């Protein structure tokens, strides 16, 4: 993996792909599958997501106030679904699903080597977490794995079906108001 500038992570999250979230608490790493997230702003890069007490990762996130958001490629689609169908309370998901955790630079939660990108995050706002289970995190470091052959991401449609990103259409020349975002 190589460093990804933080102002570029919106390119991975804006389309709303299914993501894998890692946490680390008291020496135990965990992974959960998440579909409810969104970019809040570019600078600093803020991301909002839903995580509730029904998730094993909730206690770790509340206690450590940090996580990693990993963006898996299509080749990890079935694993991502399976990760969401079991609890870290019962299963070591890294071992069970053959995923490699890498040390992050700014948080204790691990990166996932097999993901296309990993975004290290720290919780910056919990005002709506008690009422809506909504957390806002700031991206503090981001990594992209451009050497991976499979670069497509996928989206959960909310009913057990998924769409897969395909071709990319370049319209950078039309982005006249947002030139600083297309560099």
TrEMBL record:
Residue ranges of domain Flavin reductase like in the record: 11-156
GO MF term (any one): oxidoreductase activity, acting on the CH-NH group of donors, NAD or NADP as acceptor
Cofactor field: FMN
The entry's keywords: Flavoprotein
Pfam families referenced in this protein's UniProt entry, alphabetically: Flavin_Reduct
Lineage: superkingdom: Bacteria
PANTHER family named in the record: FLAVOREDOXIN, FLAVOREDOXIN-RELATED-RELATED
Family: Belongs to the flavoredoxin family.
UniProt name for this protein: Flavin reductase
Source organism of the structure: Sphingobacterium gobiense
